[in-house]
Specification:
By secondary structure, this protein is α/β, with parallel strands linked by helices. The chain folds into 2 domains: about 1-100 and about 300-320, Rossmann fold (3-Layer(aba) Sandwich), CATH 3.40.50.720; about 100-290, 3-Layer(aba) Sandwich (Rossmann fold), CATH 3.40.50.720. The chain has helices at about 10-20, 60-65, 85-90, 100-115, 120-130, 155-165, 180-185, 190-195, 215-220, 240-250, 280-285, 300-320; strands at about 1-5, 25-30, 45-50, 70-75, 95, 145-150, 170-175, 185-190, 200-205, 225-230, 250-255, 290. A 7-stranded parallel β-sheet has the order 8-7-6-9-10-11-12, with helices on both faces. Strands 2-1-3-4-5 form a 5-stranded parallel β-sheet, sandwiched between helices. The chain is globular and about 60 Å long. The structure holds nicotinamide-adenine-dinucleotide.
Length: about 325
């Protein structure tokens, strides 16, 4: 089957290519994001393979369906960038990759916490410049701190287990509580109590209409002063302008972001030689207590290997008319 692969980086070409060795689908790689201006590139393909910032809204899906695309294979977990209702109406099936190393993202969230808390970027820059001064580098023991986990699914549970290992008290909020979270020492509390009590809050829930701007001016005001916020989930969970105000007032004591609301115009590209017009990201990276990474939490060899194998497996199952284990159903 001919598959148009969008947002394809060197590692996608190499690792999808390796995973495709046996199935031998005709993979056609495009660097571009999939959106209404690039959708014509999928002409002649039976499937498209997309990533987090490809925009598969109704107009794009209509063009894809007209051109004979029957499958959208997402090589990621989140699917907020696909209009599932439009896909169902047009007879396009959508698959994703749910089960790749949750450790990759959970460990990255922990890396952000450690780097912020112990001011590793500042220390790194200082010592490279021959400055061995400690002033300004004081952190806090993680042991004994309270960590709030919003969304205790696969990633949230791994994250909770790691933080419990540091000796933190772990609080959770999730509409579907999981006994495994409690078995590892976590405790479910209402989200307002989690916000009030947590020294560190880490977001691990999906972006849906109900979770859009879950972190906003009102919820930040209810939180503990100086708390650290970590978002490795989706940018839209956080109202960026409210967070900037929180950082300026000291209500937020540290911010670790791997995702950003307007990331589709920025991430996964080298813009170092250009003038970045997005004032919010520029303001964010100017704070000494903010670390931004460019949606790299998933980016481990283990996770990418599984993502590529699962994606090719789904494409093969679709091509052979077999049931799609990883199909996403549109909510009724
Ligand atoms: P998952 O489906 O296993 O878990 C998500 C959990 O969030 C579920 O338990 C669900 O009940 C819960 N949830 C839903 N709405 C909630 C709400 N309003 N409040 C609290 N909890 C809520 O998903 P996962 O594999 O753990 O992934 C979590 C998220 O991580 C994904 O949605 C994706 O956006 C993000 N992610 C980011 C990266 C990255 O590289 N940065 C990689 C993979 C996944």
């Amino acid at each position: 089957m001919k598959v148009a692969v969008f947002s394809a980086k060197r590692y996608d070409r190499e690792m999808l290519g390796a995973a495709n060795a046996e199935a031998a689908h005709e993979l056609v790689f495009f660097d571009h994001l999939l959106d209404s201006s690039t959708v014509a590139l999928a002409a002649g393909a039976g499937a498209v393979c997309g990533f987090v910032n490809d925009r598969m809204d109704a107009p794009v899906l209509e063009v894809l369906a007209k051109g004979g695309v029957g499958l959208v294979a997402l090589r990621c977990t989140g699917f907020n960038n696909v209009d599932l209702k439009a896909a169902a109406r047009l007879g396009i099936k959508v698959v994703r990759v749910t089960d790749y190393s949750p450790h990759s993202v959970a460990e990255h969230a922990v890396a952000l916490i450690l780097a912020l808390n112990r001011k590793i970027p500042r220390a790194y820059n200082r010592t490279r410049d021959g400055n061995f001064e400690l002033d300004g580098l004081m952190g806090r023991d993680l042991h004994g701190q309270t960590v709030g986990v919003i969304g205790t699914g696969k990633i949230g549970r791994v994250f909770a287990r790691i933080m419990a290992g540091f000796g933190c008290s772990v609080l959770g909020s999730d509409p579907y509580p999981d006994p495994e979270f409690e078995a590892h020492g976590g405790r479910y509390v209402p989200v307002a109590e989690l916000a009030e009590r947590s020294d560190i809050i880490s977001l691990h829930c999906p972006l849906t209409p109900g979770t859009h701007h879950l972190v906003n001016a009102a919820s930040l005001a209810r939180g503990k002063r100086g708390a650290v916020l970590i978002n490795t989930s989706r940018g839209g969970l956080v109202d960026t302008e409210a967070v900037i105000e929180g950082l300026k007032s000291g209500q937020i004591g540290g911010l670790g972001l791997d995702v950003y609301e307007q990331e589709s115009d920025l991430f996964f590209q080298d813009l170092s030689g250009t003038i970045i017009a997005d004032d919010l990201i520029q303001r964010l990276v100017s704070f000494p207590n903010v670390i931004v990474t460019g949606h790299q939490a998933f980016f481990t060899q283990e996770a990418i290997g599984t993502i590529c194998e699962t994606t090719i497996g789904s494409i093969t199952a679709y091509a052979e008319g077999r049931p799609l284990e990883h199909e996403i159903q549109a909510a009724a």
